[in-house]
From TrEMBL, chains A, B:
Family: Belongs to the FPP/GGPP synthase family.
Naturally occurring in which organism (per UniProt): Parasporobacterium paucivorans DSM 15970
Protein name: Farnesyl diphosphate synthase
Lineage: superkingdom: Bacteria
Keywords, sorted A to Z: Isoprene biosynthesis, Magnesium, Metal-binding, Transferase
Catalytic activity: isopentenyl diphosphate + (2E)-geranyl diphosphate = (2E,6E)-farnesyl diphosphate + diphosphate
Obligatory cofactor(s): Mg(2+)
Listed GO CC annotations: cytoplasm
Record-listed E.C. numbers: 2.5.1.10
CDD domains in the record: Trans_IPPS_HT
InterPro entries registered for this protein in UniProt: Isoprenoid_synthase_dom_sf, Polyprenyl_synt, Polyprenyl_synt_CS, Prenyl_diphosphate_synthase
Taxonomic lineage of the native organism: Bacteria, Bacillati, Bacillota, Clostridia, Lachnospirales
Length: 296, 296
């Protein structure tokens, strides 16, 4: 297996899926649809949709078409959260993935509305799937996981704790809460949704949640490391932004060496869990290695 | 029937429903939950939930408990749209319903997040209902109407056209688009959802959509009239804000007299449609009169 080729193929497929689900830009509200397309189709590693798809395969799923609305909805929700995070009242970021952020290109009002529109549209996509599916309950269970993990007990909850603590000293417990909800929740939802769609039992769904939790934490700590050691060219946004924003991170609390070691330990543990499953998915294991040792 | 007493009873019931569905304020994300409760439980006419409930009764619905999650979700979505509309980058309003707006009390970042959280939570509530219901498909059909009418082809689309045209001259066609989507869409969704939950046929659902469209338009024109003729004490927010924001409205295009006459005509037409139904709902008809001749 050539991992990079396989990854590119998957990203290209997801880009096509996203393009097909997004509304065309037309009518008096055209600018918000343009902003939606600009932000969603502007690159990105598509980690969460890939995790949905690969976990679905790992858990024995066969009809890959049922994962597509969830892959699209997940990426739309992830993207809306980035648009709103980048707003002047939040992180005030001018660049994302090497391009101007949405509010910089379209203005702040349209930035806010494009974020709202993407969150809303994610549920439009999913509800259509629930209506059309022969197994509406299963689709609704997967959708409820997405909603819960995106909301005030998931991503938004983590983002809130992050925002209100910016510039303040953070202890390990509060930092863990932020990492677990802000970054972890959508990764957990992705793997859980893959398992639910493949008709997994509750034990397997929980195992996928735990695995994803470790991946999410490793991914976030790697992000903190890159903010300190990477270049803008490599990571597509300004480096040292944590220092600029006086952010407490795992790295500022524990140092680079312990951070690297924590990432390795989390990554191994997640891979061990995946190896305990009946089926194998080599690409998924390579993906975890890639996510946790990546340099961008 | 004493309309005002009946209205108060219904509002009190909806306030209880909202209070019971909203998450408690606790944990590291407490502030966003407080902001959600502050904005949702701060009064309001609860028009949209009432329309869901009364249309459900008009269409022969009996088990009122199934309307509650939809009443809550609808009001949460309406409230999130107000929070985001009031932000500095949008209308920059300091008062709403006679109280400070959410971003003024909790800061802009938490205002944005509380809006996101309410939109997200609306779908958490609805998806739970879809999972638990014996008729998941029906619930999903009602939910899909809510999602569609809230999104880029509904409320958000109208809000976008409104925002990007602020300060610019508007023709009648564009103004109609904005009224129909920004104000009309959620009113239409409310009456359609009531009809869907009561197992109405497609023809009845369409009739409710048309009726609601007239009510929404009459309601918006009445709002424009009040902005010109009301006092801050009466309407709970600063008057003459349209003039301040150089907004084109039905009133600025057509004058006060024609506006009053248009409201009367729309109101009569909506009432005629309701009177064409097999069942009667006197409260609903009184409500339409109240909404279109209100002075606050």
């Amino acid at each position: 297996m050539n991992f990079n080729v396989e990854l590119k193929t998957r990203i290209a497929h997801i880009d096509e899926v996203l393009n097909s689900f997004l509304p065309p830009a037309a009518g008096y509200q055209q600018i918000v649809q343009e902003a939606m397309r600009y932000s969603v189709l502007g690159g990105g590693k598509r980690i969460r949709p890939i995790l949905i798809h690969e976990t679905y395969l790992l858990c024995g799923g066969r009809d890959c078409s049922i994962t597509e609305p969830f892959m699209a909805a997940m990426e739309l929700i992830h993207t809306y959260s980035l648009i709103h995070d980048d707003l002047p009242a939040m992180d005030d970021d001018e660049y994302r993935r090497g391009r101007k952020t949405t509010h910089v290109v379209y203005g702040e009002a349209v930035g806010i509305l494009a974020g709202d529109a993407l969150l809303n549209y994610a549920f439009e996509i999913i509800l259509q799937q629930i209506i059309e599916s022969e197994d509406s309950k299963k689709m609704a269970r997967a959708a409820a996981i997405l909603a819960r993990k995106s909301g005030v007990f998931g991503m938004i909850g983590g983002q809130t704790a992050d925002v209100v603590n910016t510039g303040l000293p953070l202890d390990t417990r509060k930092l863990d809460f932020i990492y677990s909800l802000k970054t972890g929740a959508l990764i957990e939802a992705s793997m859980m949704i893959g398992a639910v769609l493949a008709d997994s039992d509750d034990q397997t769904i929980s195992l996928m949640e735990e695995t994803a939790s470790e991946i999410g934490r490793a991914f976030q700590i790697r992000d903190d490391i890159l903010d300190l050691t990477g270049t803008m060219e490599e990571i597509g946004k300004p480096v040292l932004s944590d220092e600029k924003n006086k952010k407490t991170t795992f790295v500022t609390l524990n140092g680079l060496n312990e951070s690297e070691s924590e990432v390795r330990s989390l990554s191994s543990s997640a891979i061990d869990k995946l190896n305990s499953m009946d089926r194998k998915n080599d690409f998924l294991i390579e993906l975890i290695r890639y996510l946790t040792i990546r340099n961008k």
